[in-house]
Amino acid sequence: MYLLQPYFQQCPSAFTPSSISISCPRRSVYISVSKRNFISCSSSQARTTVVNGKTDSRIAERNEIRLCLPSKGRMAADTLDLLKDCQLSVKQVNPRQYVAQVPQLSNLEVWFQRPKDIVRKLLSGDFDLGIVGLDTVSEYGQGSEDLILVHDALEYGDCRLSLAIPEYGIFENINSLKELAQMPQWTAEKPLRVATGFTYLGPKFMKESGFKHVIFSTADGALEAAPAMGIADAILDLVSSGTTLRENNLKEIEGGVVLESQAVLVASRKALIQRKGALDTTHEILERFEAHLRALGQFTVTANMRGSSAEEVAARVLSQPSLAGLQGPTVSPVFCKHDGKVAADYYAIVICVPKKALYKSVQQLRVIGGSGVLVSPLTYIFDEETPRWRALLSKLGL
Predict the structure, then answer these.
(1) pTM of this prediction?
(2) Average pLDDT over residues 368-384
(3) Tens digits of per-residue pLDDT, 173-203?
C-alpha cells in the first residue's frame, strides 16, 4: 500500500468513496483500488524503453489504421450518418461484430467500443483515431498530451456538463456558483455533497471555483433523483435541453457550466507521428468532414440577368447585402442566337447563400432584374487548404 502513496498524492481528484483510480499516462499503467481493497493493474500494448535515462514510448506495430466509434446510442447512429454523408460508409458484415471496414479507405479498420473505452484505448495505443464526445475526452483523457483534437466541432451530440441544485429549500434563492460557494452551511463536518459520474472534471472544477468543503459520490441510475432522496445536495451531469432537470425540480445556476460538449474527432499523437499512413488517412477524413460540414445549410443560387457587361451585372449584384456569396458572385455570359448571330444578351449569376438568407436573396435578385432562379443544396465546399489541417500539423510540430 505504501508503494501506491506517491500516485495517490499525484492524483487526489481521482478518489471517490467507493473506488480509487490512478492513471499514469506516460507509462500507460492503470491502477484501481475497490472498496474491497482489490488492486488491479493493466498495461497497454505500447512498448516503453529507457534510452539515456529518458522514457521512450513506441506504438504497437501493425499496418492497419484503427478508427474507433461509439457502439450504441444516439451518438453512434449520428456518427455513422456523418461518415455516410462524407462518402465513408461503414460496412459491417455482421451487426454484432465489433470491427468493420470503410471501402473507400483500404487501410482503415473501424472498431466499436463504449465511449470511455475509446479514450482509454487511444491512450494505450490500441486505437489511432476516435469519434466521441468532448466531455468523454476531457474526463478520461485528463489533459493527456498524447490526445489531439483533430476536429473539435462535428455538429452533433451537443450537450453541456453542468452543476444543478434544487429549486426549493435552502437553495431557493441561490442562482449562481458564487452564491452557492458562499453559503455558510458548508463546513468540514458538513460539506456540499455532489453526485456525479465525472470524478475527474467534477473535483477539478469545484476546486478551481473556490469550494473548500465539498465531497463527491456516484449514484446508480438517474442522478436527478439524488437530491430528492437526500443523498446529495447537488448534481453534476450532462444536460441537453434541461427538461429532465426541470421535471425533477432542479435548476442550473450562473457559472455552473463545466464544459460545452459535442462530438469530436480525436487522435493519438504517437500514432499520427509514428504509424505509417496514419497522418495521410487522418488528412483525408478531416478534409471530407470539413467540406461536408461547411456545406451544411448552404445553397447554390443561379439566375439569369440582362446587362451591358459582366462588370456592370456584378456591380448590381454586389449592391445587395445578401448576394455577396462566399467570395463574390460568379458572372458568366449566356449566349443566344438571333438572326443568325450569336450574342450575349444575358449573364448567369451563381452565388452561395445560407439557408436562413435564401428567400431574402431570391427577392433581392428579382429586384435587380434576376429571372429563372434555380436553387440547389450544396454537398461539399472544399477549401484550398483545410484550416484545421494546418492547425494539426502545428500541434505535431510538422
Answers:
(1) 0.79
(2) 91
(3) 999 999 999 999 999 999 999 999 999 999 9
What does the pLDDT average to over 47-63? 54
Candidates 70, 232, 31, 275; CA nearest to 154 is 70
The length of the chain, given as a count of residues: 398
Q: How confident is the model at residue 57 (pLDDT cuts 50, 70, 90)?
A: low
Which among 287, 364, 296 is positioned nearest to 329, based on CA atoms? Answer: 364
Q: Which residues pair with 15 in a beta bridge?
A: 20
CA dist 307 to 8, 177, 311, 345, 395, Å? 77, 62, 9, 7, 50
Give the rounded percent of residues in the chain with a pLDDT score beyond 70.
84
* Closest to 278 measured CA to CA, from 99, 107, 154: 107
Does residue 22 carry a pLDDT above 60? no
| Conformation bin of residue 179: beta by default, left when phi > 0, alpha when psi is -120 to 50 | alpha
In the numeric block, the cell 435564401 is attached to 358
**Beta partners for residue 39, in sequence order:** 33
Query: For the ranges 133-147, 218-232, 351-365, which has the lowest average pLDDT?
Result: 218-232
